[in-house]
Design goal:
The chain is of the alpha/beta class. Helix content is 24%, strand content 23%. The protein contains nine helices and 14 strands. The strands form two sheets. The protein has a seven-stranded mixed sheet with strand order 6-5-4-3-2-1-14. The chain has a seven-stranded mixed sheet with strand order 7-8-9-10-11-12-13, with helices on one face. Helix 9 (240-251) links the parallel strand 12 (227-231) and strand 13 (256-259). Helix 2 packs parallel to helix 4 (93-100) and helix 8 runs parallel beside helix 9 (240-251).
């Protein structure tokens, strides 16, 4: 089965990704306005009418936009969010409407099925936005058909062996390549922000993300993952060229690499399920810690983006 994987926006000014199978599709994060989401979905060959469920990684304002929540409520689309997200979202009118309609589906650390039938295994990440999760997602055309497997890690300050364990043999791996360490250290920005981004609850550097990709590739069967998507590149402390260079050194020449963009949908891929039962490597996983990270952003729509936040966790303010 081929699954559409379309990054609608990725970066400090908004994040959203669309996964489309044979039926209704799944949105990961809602960091665009209703209009912006509609435009990006249309550019990716989809639309709001193809969205059957939404999945939230965390509550920083570049990942959840009140207007997008209101659109979910208007269309009767279910929102899968962590139970720890509810306190932050409770003041948003769109979330309140979803609650009243019974459309809020809380998840915890256990696997669950979305309203579209996708199987999701949450992966707890290290980030200062409250409970933050990545996902191992499996989408099947039928009960007997092979599953298309997607690994998605957007915001995390470090990675562990257990994260790698959950990403082995995915068909597509999407990982944050946020910053170049030297560009981060020398950036014209507050020292507290630099420390935060380089810390273990900030964002992955190119080198750290490359090590994560290498660990997944080494433990996966030959040819998996076929595609590697680089997420959440800092517009001030990174470049696509630097991120792709680090990814290429880690992933090897046989994989397709894609640097996601902020200003337009990219990439838009058809992800094919593996045709054989995955044969996992017996090679033990090795935890690899992080060094520095990156990214900053301005105020947009009166909300402070996560990259501007202090080191201690601070809930996003939603009007």
């Amino acid at each position: 089965m081929a699954v559409q994987f379309a990054v609608l926006a990725s970066g400090s000014r908004g994040n959203a990704t669309f996964l489309g199978g044979g039926g209704a599709g799944l949105l990961i994060d809602l960091g665009l306005t209703q209009k912006g989401m509609a435009e990006r979905l249309r550019a990716a060959g989809a639309g709001w009418d193809r969205v059957g469920a939404a999945l939230l990684t965390h509550t920083h304002s570049d990942h959840v936009e009140p207007a997008a929540l209101a659109e979910l409520a208007r269309r009767g689309v279910s929102l899968h969010c962590h139970s720890g997200h509810r306190a932050v979202l409770a003041g948003c009118a769109g979330f309140q409407e979803l609650e009243r309609a019974g459309r809020v589906r809380p998840y915890d650390d256990e696997p669950f099925l979305t309203a579209t039938g996708a199987r999701v295994e949450p992966i707890r990440l290290a980030h200062d936005g409250g409970p933050t999760y990545g996902f191992h997602i499996e989408i099947r055309e039928s009960n007997r058909g092979p599953a298309t497997r997607i690994g998605y890690l957007a915001d995390t300050g470090c990675w562990t062996a257990s994260m790698v364990d959950r990403l082995v043999d995915v068909d597509l791996l999407a990982v944050e390549f946020n910053h170049d360490v030297e560009l981060q250290r020398t950036a014209d920005r507050p020292a507290r922000l630099i420390r935060r981004n380089l810390g273990d609850r900030g964002h992955l550097s190119n080198d750290q993300a490359g090590e994560l990709v290498r660990a997944v590739v080494e433990r996966s069967r030959p040819g998996r993952p076929r595609d590697v998507v680089l997420l959440h590149l800092s517009e001030q402390c990174n470049t696509p060229e630097l991120a792709l260079e680090a990814a290429r050194a880690a992933a090897g020449p046989e994989r397709h690499l894609h640097a996601a963009r902020q200003a337009e949908p990219h990439p838009c891929l058809r992800v094919e399920a593996a045709t054989r039962t995955p044969q996992r490597s017996a090679r033990p996983s090795i935890a690899r810690r992080k060094s520095p990270r990156t990214t900053h952003s301005p105020f947009i729509a009166g909300l402070l983006f996560d990259h501007e936040r202090p080191t201690e966790p601070t809930p996003v303010e939603i009007a």
